[in-house]
Design brief:
The protein contains 15 helices and 17 strands. By secondary structure, the chain is an alpha/beta fold. The strands form 3 sheets. Strands 1-8-4-5-7-6-2-3 form an 8-stranded mixed β-sheet.
């Protein structure tokens, strides 16, 4: 998208950390980050931009380029700010910007200080998008702000109570689009088709935003490719809580996923709590991408403890001990999932954190479902 503004005699462009275009008609010399005034900002177009963007600034014959990442919590106002840092305040449109005001040369700044010159900022999405699934209750009002704009512009919609998921929802996932999913009640009561589709979406790397969910527990489970129930939510915990009873007992022996919010520094205590099984356990950690919704990466627990930033806080999903998932007995559901079009590869990806191998999966499917899964795999290979 293109944002048009004009130059102003008080443009100084000396700020080393930010770059700003404003809708205001006048600025003072103290506005050292502003490089254009009188901009008309299209809230809808800005809200639909996600992920990494290429940035191009032009005025007269001068052009400067850079990259940035859209801040998922941006609230459209009469100013658009790009920041070098990760500080995602509501007025920040993008973070990690390689283009800031002080990077512009003297001749470029002179052009920006000429009110006769048009200033154009072009923002273009760069790189593949992650699919985004927005979930809302049917009895709740339509979401507002940026989530609401994305909801209304979604590429497809899904009724999680229905017996069938429309084909365009799968197409939207494959293309990295936004899907608006509605449910009449808790996600534990969704249809079998919806459960299969949610697992498929997670297998394709979808991010999940459950509107109205303040804890992050449900979107974390969905992004991890796991059922919403059964699971154990510990809420926000620190080292002391994780190491003490009853949390430690649950982490050692729970036959279902355990979800909790903590800082990276607090993860280290799991080495003491889980002792002998520490190296065998897997955990879903936030993927660290500044985008709307919750996305995760599955890692061996020792690697997660080593790599996750100590000051970063996130929602983590600890998989149960190996093979403990069969205590929930998911096997009767597997043929039904295959009948709904979920591939064996997707099922294998989703069930791997439970310690269920592909061989275990095929043993549980039965002859008919196994043959159907093999045909699906052959079709995927042909594509």
């Amino acid at each position: 998208m293109k944002i048009h503004a004009r130059g102003h005699e008080n443009v100084r462009a000396t700020h080393a950390k930010t770059l700003e275009i404003t809708g205001e008609q006048d600025i003072t010399p103290r506005a050292t980050c502003v490089i254009g005034v009188g901009a008309a900002l299209d809230g809808r177009e800005l809200a639909l931009l996600r992920g990494p963007v290429a940035v191009r600034l032009s005025a007269g014959p001068h052009v400067a380029t850079g990259t940035a990442v859209v801040n998922p919590h941006h609230a459209v106002t009469d100013r658009l700010v790009l920041r070098r840092s990760d500080h995602g305040s509501p007025d920040t449109f993008a973070v990690r910007s390689t283009l800031v005001a002080s990077a512009l040369g003297p001749e470029f700044v002179a052009a920006l200080a000429d009110p006769a010159n048009e200033v154009t900022l072009t923002l273009t999405e760069a790189g593949p998008r992650q699919p985004l699934v927005l979930v809302n209750r049917r009895d709740q009002p339509e979401p507002q702000g940026r989530p609401g704009l994305l909801w209304r512009a979604a590429a497809a919609s899904v009724d999680l109570d229905a017996a069938r998921v429309p084909d365009d929802a799968r197409t939207a996932l494959a293309e990295g689009g936004v899907v608006a999913a509605v449910t009449s009640g808790p996600l534990e009561g969704r249809s079998q088709a919806a459960g299969a589709w949610l697992a498929e979406a997670a297998g394709l790397g979808a991010r999940f935003e459950v509107l109205g969910d303040a804890t992050g527990t449900v979107p974390a489970l969905l992004a991890a490719g796991l059922p919403v129930a059964p699971a154990i939510g510990l809420g926000r915990v620190d080292r002391r809580a994780l190491a003490g009873a009853p949390c430690a007992d649950l982490l050692r022996s729970a036959a279902v996923p355990v979800v909790f919010r903590a800082t990276g520094a607090d993860l280290g205590v799991l080495g003491e709590v889980l002792a002998g099984s520490f190296g065998e356990r897997r955990i879903a950690v936030p993927d660290g991408r500044p985008d709307l919704g919750h996305g995760v990466t599955w890692l061996p627990l020792p690697e997660a403890v080593e790599s996750f930033g100590s000051d970063d806080e996130g929602v983590f999903v600890l998989a149960p001990p190996e093979r403990a998932a069969w205590n929930v007995d998911l096997r009767p559901l597997l043929p039904l999932l295959v009948e709904q079009g979920v591939t064996a590869r997707t099922l294998s990806t989703v069930l791997r954190p439970f310690g269920i191998s592909r061989r275990d999966l095929y043993d549980a499917l039965g002859d008919k479902a196994r043959k159907q899964a093999e045909k699906q795999a052959e079709k995927q290979a042909e594509k």
